[in-house]
Structures are given as C-alpha cells and as structure tokens.
Automatic annotation (TrEMBL):
Residues 29-207 form the START domain. One of its GO terms (cellular component) is endoplasmic reticulum. GO terms for biological process: cholesterol import; cholesterol transport involved in cholesterol storage; intracellular cholesterol transport. GO terms for molecular function: cholesterol binding; cholesterol transfer activity. This is STAR4 protein.
Length: 207
C-alpha cells in the first residue's frame, strides 16, 4: 500500500494530462456510441491496453452546478446509478481530496462490483471548470470487491458562448476494471455507461 502522494504536483500533472487529451485531433477518435444526450468516441489508450473514451454533450445548466453534481460530494450518490458508496478518505483543500467508492455490477453481473480509490482535483479551465481524477494504490481492498484503476480521467465543463445557461460537458475516461473480463464486455459497458451518465445527470439537474 502506497503512502498518499504530495497533492500539488499530482494535481498539476493530472490537469496537464487532461488538457493534452482535450487537444487530440478529431481524426484520432472513432465513434463508439451516439444517443440524443451524448456522443461517445474511443481511441487506444497510451496508459494501458484498453481504450481512452471521450464523451460529449450539451447540458442545460450552469457550469458550477453541473460540476457540483459530478465531483466528490453529496450529490453524486443521489443520481449516479453506477456508484453504490462513496467516502472521502482525505481532504487536502476544498478542491482536492482522496475518495473511495464502489460501483454496481454491470452486464448481468458479468462485470462484478468494483472498488476504486481516486485522487480528485477540481480547477478552473477557460470560462468553466475541470474536475479530474486518477486512482491510487491506497487503503485496504474490501472483501467482495475487485479493485479497479482509473488512469487519468476528467470532465471539462464550459458555458456555451451564445447560451451561457447551457454548458458543453466533455469527459475523458480510461478505466482498467481488472479481474478476468472479456475485453468486448468491458468496451460495451463503458460506451453505454458514459451515454447513460449524461441522461442520468440531466434528469438529476432538472429535479
């Protein structure tokens, strides 16, 4: 089990990595799924043998409120059907923490429940916000869970220039679920999960 990292350099490196993903040209992405709420693309990850996913859609709300629903805090468990528990293990400052959370089984439990311990950081980006995270090898793994690992992930949320009450939400996700899993099942689950994330988030913001 590792010690907790120094948060400042990790936060800077994480932000820089996400900004780099945000500049990847359209030609490198392949569409994985399209719904009325979002489009999901993917490309081979540079971090592990799976995919880096990009999801994007317009959400009818202001940036701060959207990000408050996504980052670690009281809102996330209320609406995210995949997340079953969440505990803040350490808080470094208001916008920076370590959280442990568990996810529900997926695809008729072909993918069993998973546990993650993530470093999370929220910062300004252009006129909006970036909330990002990366997994840590920290804390004991609880029984009945496989410990998954999130390579650098994050959500950019910026107001639309002509419609500031609407925001463009762009996510970059690369999750290594670990355990014995067929890669095709993981890929199917990831695309659907990201599309559902947008529809669930929109419903939550309307309530």
């Amino acid at each position: 089990m590792d010690l907790l990292p120094n948060p400042a350099p990790l936060a800077t490196k994480l932000r820089n990595t996400l900004v780099q993903y945000h500049t990847i040209g359209d030609g490198e992405w392949r569409v994985a799924k399209k719904t009325k709420d979002a489009t999901v693309w993917r490309k081979p990850s540079d971090e592990f043998s799976g995919y880096l996913y990009k999801a994007q859609g317009v959400v009818e709300d202001v940036t701060n409120r959207i990000v408050d629903h996504i980052r670690p805090g009281p809102y996330r468990l209320d609406w995210d059907s995949l997340m079953t528990t969440m505990d803040i293990m350490e808080t470094f400052e208001e916008n920076c923490c370590v959280m442990r959370y568990t996810t529900a089984g997926q695809l008729w439990n072909i993918i069993a429940p998973r546990e993650f311990v993530d470093f999370s950081y929220t910062t300004g980006y252009e006129d909006g916000l970036l909330t990002c995270g990366i997994s840590l090898d920290y804390g004991e793994v609880r029984p009945n869970f496989v410990r998954g690992f999130n390579h650098p992930c994050g959500w950019f949320c910026v107001p639309l220039k002509d419609y500031p009450s609407h925001s463009l939400l762009t996510g970059y996700i690369q999750t290594e679920l670990r355990g014995m899993l067929p890669q095709s099942a993981v890929d199917t689950a990831m695309s659907s999960t990201l599309a559902n994330f947008y529809s669930d988030l929109k419903k939550a913001l309307k309530t």
